[in-house]
Write a structure and sequence with these properties.
Structural class: mainly alpha
Oligomer: single chain
Distance between the termini: 14 Å
Helix content: over 70%
Bound molecules: fe (ii) ion
Length: about 50
């Protein structure tokens, strides 16, 4: 469940970063997207390890 929540955040930040004309803000949200990608993959790894 946590992986799904993080993946949805990742998706939203990706779409936000791609839709902005402001280069600074696009990069800002792109970094959030990268961070969320790390979170959801971590939760998947944890689930695979402990199930
Ligand atoms: Fe997160």
């Amino acid at each position: 469940m946590m992986a799904m929540i993080e993946a949805r955040s990742c998706e939203r930040f990706k779409r936000l970063s791609e839709g902005l004309n402001d280069a600074y803000l696009a990069k800002f949200y792109r970094r959030f997207m990268e961070s969320e990608a790390g979170h959801y993959t971590l939760f998947i790894e944890l689930a695979e390890t402990y199930t």
